[in-house]
Amino acid sequence: MSKVTCTIIYDGQPLTGAADEPLIDFLDAHDIDLPHVCYHPSLGPLQTCDTCWVEVDGELKRGCTLRSADGLTVSSQEQRARAAREEGMDRLLGKHELYCSVCEHNTGDCTLHNTVASMDIPIQRYKFRRKPYEKDDSGPFYTYDPDQCILCGRCVEACQNVEVNETLSIDYSMENPRVLWDGGMSINDSSCVDCGHCVTVCPCNALLEKTMQPDAGPFTAMPQDLKRPMIEIVKRLEETIGAPPITGLSNMDMYWRQPEIKRTKTVCTYCGVGCAFEMWTRDRHILKVQPVAAAPANGISTCVKGKFAWDFVNSEKRLTMPLIRDNGRFREASWDEALDKVAKGLLHARDTYGADSVGFIGSSKASNEEAYLTQKIARLIIGTNSVDNSSRYCQNPATKGLFRTVGYGGDAGSIEDLEKAEVVVIVGSNTAENHPVIASRIKAAKKRRGQKLIVVDPRKHEMAERADIFLRPNISTDLIWASALSRYMFEHGYADLTFLDQHVNQVEAYRQSLEPFTLAFAEEKTGISRQALIDTAEMIGTAQSVCLVWAMGITQHSHGADISTALSNLLLVTGNYGKPGTGGYPMRGHNNVQGASDFGCLRNMYPGYEKVTDDDARARWAKAWGVDKEQLSDKIGEGNFLMVQSAQQDRIKAMYVIGEETAFADADSHNVHTAFEELDFMVVQDMFLSRTAEFADVVLPGCPSVEKDGTFVNTERRIQRFHEVMAPLGDSRPDWAILTELAARMGHDWGYTHPSQIMAECARIAPMFAGVTYERLEGWKSLQWPVAADGTDTPLLYTDGFPTEDGKATLFPLEWKEPDEEADDEYDLMLDNGRMLEHFQGTNQSGRTAEIWHQTPYGFIEVSPQLAAERGIEEGTWVRLTSRRDSVEMPAVITDRVDGKTLFVPIHHGKIGINALTGEHHDPDVHTPAYKETAVKLEVLDRERHAPPLPAHNFRFGRRTPTDGVPVEVKWMRQEYVEPPAHQPRPEKL
């Protein structure tokens, strides 16, 4: 739909552009800079800085409040407007000690400096006065300097209404206003989650990354006892010669710094949100991560890991040379020796025991192109479909449920649809900690636009605390309540019968299958009250648009595929597919777990989800690869869970594992380790000597994403490019280059010299990616699959029907099945597990940042207050958990996040090893282990109590201070405030 245009008159000149745009952005599109400091395109008009005054119809207006409209006439050059802008800037400088040439932030990104320079301020009218506060450097990642703070409120708006962590505020009624954390706590002792939003939007150096201090510029690293006198001298000099020479020097300094600082667009390597940002580096030093408004998935948002947890890139423990095991010990080897050994080992296993004796596990953290090459080597060179990725542990049940019902194994729409929905239902997803940037969008929609939120989870996490309805079902009973709600919709007139008649098959058969799922049965089995079920059904049934979000709390059960199917069924019954603000959204855990599956690291699918059993698809892939179709196996391979079992049973002889911590992440870790020891030959390709790599015969040093080019697919099916920020460390190599060279040593010289060639090959063969090219992904552009040959992508699925033979979806009848493992008299507790905000998986990446451990230095078990009182457990009490497989010992945290006889353990702490307790019982359809179905017994140990496992400074103990944003009206109502261009005697007070 084309945008409405308009023409405005600005300083007598007609300008044509988009209508209803903020005036500042409208002018910027015409290369006109209206001075401003507090305005940010992602935050809107805060009206605090008073530097953007213009005249409209003879009246002074703040330019940030105006929007383009036909006939709008604006003058910026009238004397009153110019004087008002200069007065506004003078007031800012009265609050900010301007010493740009020795300031770490004078890198071209300082809004205040750039605005001062563009306005050509002749002299600082108001003398800078120090504020009665010390610089706060208590936080692990950034500092706050009140003497530099101009009280613009950008940080507050970002924290309150973009991140919606609601930690920061400004009290303009204080005698000396400042930014406050939880109303007056230090950064370290507050509810701050270190997302970095505040630092990203700060227009000066009041909030600054510690990685930028002190060596961001040629003069910034000098000791404070030298820097301070220099500042004082320059400030006194300024009073005699005026500001322009000093500003000129700072401009020179800014331009001196520019060539040294490299800014590279990349995509985050942690969760599946797909945050894109610039990474600022000087040589190998990562100065900072800087999000931009144009980033398609996240805008200016980040989380603690994406913003700050990059120390792993330069870790001294990075692998930089290939390793070969000799006599039980690793030694360094050349690439020639290592690759020759790998090629011979894999071919020997194939030729001696058959193609299916070799298994490949591709990486959910590597690129799409690298996933494509992994499955190409497996299928074309070895001849097996036994290739998989970590989606087997998390994503596959959701994918199966979507394939059964609507046809595509991915999110139905975009993050924007989650924002648009009238109701969002979150099931089994700790979104605020596992996908924090998406959680922020939902929190903002609820806070600012009244979106309704339903959360269903056995654990009361942040999203549950914020929910309009919070349901706490018994573990593994989600299929029951979801099916009961579907039945309720039919019985109470909320089923979208028109949609069902036109777009859905098996409606009647499905409706009949709901007969057992009465509200009474649901109440009995789930523990959710009848009234709560009715309230939930009414909220969903009366809504015009519903999105349903789920994650591993649903998929990691013995019937996770069925539960996922039940959730998708509910959406179909209510007509919540194919229109904005609707659909199913299984949150992807790793940064490229979606892409690893999309590009063929699946036991039954070629890239683009074409079945290996489909003769036509097999023939097309064989032709494209230059072989007869008989050379490609039509037998469904084994996934990683089955590969490990087959290795233990001596059916799989060789395995190639890329960037996956299988020894840590797979269920029943004792059996996994035994299986790896049974292998004749094992290759691990990784950045670190991981727990998995310890079992290898050859270890190949791969690279993180910042040391190569490629593409990722995020949870919303969005394909984005990332770029090489710095060269590979030591003699490590990009995974695509390693795989290309390995293929050549096995007789297949594909000759790829850049990942773009790999993507081009895949796009020529797989219809789903037909229009994907690197050119179409330049800059901040992205594409959401499926992508037509002309480059048209699909942000919202199912608008023109479903990808089935008749274009219809399917309601899939289900039966309730008891979970494979439940509590009994001996193992009387159920153990839940999951991720935390601070860490990621086995901490091979996040754990290399010391400041991350500052928040959560220990592993622990969460125990409910009820159970703690019953068993005599206190904070830090050591307990032993014993499952039907093994025991682990850990200290307790007492919290109402868990309830009754349900426990929770974070998965990240390797020494504790949660997977010593989990079992091999799994979903029979997709072979995902039932990690969430672990029955345990608990024994209190007679041991000195541990220090509080969650330190007192952990953000979970903070007290948020929700506000509507920046209370600029309070500032205006103060007696001292006068509107520019009138002068204000003590500007630092406001």
Automatic annotation (TrEMBL):
InterPro entries: 2Fe-2S_ferredoxin-like_sf (IPR036010), 2Fe-2S_ferredoxin-type (IPR001041), 4Fe4S_Fe-S-bd (IPR017896), 4Fe4S_Fe_S_CS (IPR017900), Asp_de-COase-like_dom_sf (IPR009010), Formate_Dh-H_N (IPR041924), Formate_DH_asu (IPR006478), MoPterin_dinucl-bd_dom (IPR006657). One of its GO terms (biological process) is respiratory electron transport chain. GO terms for molecular function: 2 iron, 2 sulfur cluster binding; 4 iron, 4 sulfur cluster binding; formate dehydrogenase (NAD+) activity; metal ion binding; molybdopterin cofactor binding; NADH dehydrogenase activity. Gene3D superfamilies: 2.40.40.20, 3.10.20.740, 3.30.70.20, 3.40.50.740, ADC-like domains (2.20.25.90), Dimethylsulfoxide Reductase, domain 2 (3.40.228.10). CDD domains: MopB_Formate-Dh-H. GO terms for cellular component: membrane; oxidoreductase complex. Residues 80-120 form the 4Fe-4S His(Cys)3-ligated-type domain. Residues 140-167, 183-212 form the 4Fe-4S ferredoxin-type domain. Transmembrane segments: none annotated. Residues 261-317 form the 4Fe-4S Mo/W bis-MGD-type domain. Residues 2-80 form the 2Fe-2S ferredoxin-type domain. Its cofactor is [4Fe-4S] cluster; Mo-bis(molybdopterin guanine dinucleotide). Pfam families: Fer2_4, Fer4_7, Molybdop_Fe4S4, Molybdopterin, Molydop_binding, NADH-G_4Fe-4S_3. The keyword Iron-sulfur applies. In the C-terminal section; belongs to the prokaryotic molybdopterin-containing oxidoreductase family. PANTHER family: FORMATE DEHYDROGENASE H (PTHR43105:SF14), RESPIRATORY NITRATE REDUCTASE (PTHR43105). This is Formate dehydrogenase major subunit. It comes from Halomonas korlensis.
